[in-house]
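Troubleshooting log. The previous structure file for this entry was overwritten by mistake, so regenerating from the original sequence record. Sequence copied from the archived sheet and checked twice against the printout by T.R.
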Amino acid sequence: MPLVDVTYAPTVPESSLRELGSVLPHLVSLAVECPEEPYDGELRPGDVELRFRPLGPLDRSGLAVVIEIKSKWFASRAADRQERVDTLHENVHAATGLADFGIYLSLPVAAWSQGD
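Regenerated output below.
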């Protein structure tokens, strides 16, 4: 279950953020898919959590958008994480046209529980 935080500059149009919000759940799911957590193409509640936050007055960033992804560590994910994040970057650019953005993929040892 990836947690995705998107921090954006005030210059990023709301339409671009909406487009990003519509494509990220699927693209992130593809990027972190692994045998331990396969992705069947059907997103359900709790599969991907997105949070958007504007840059604050004290924040400093050289990019218009920074996408931070946290997804549970599995050896199969960790083995090719750079390839996964590079492919995700290409796919986000292709789907949204965004150019001035970065993606940070973190694979912490974690657990998740969710009620019905």
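The chain has three helices and four strands. Archived copy saved in two places this time.
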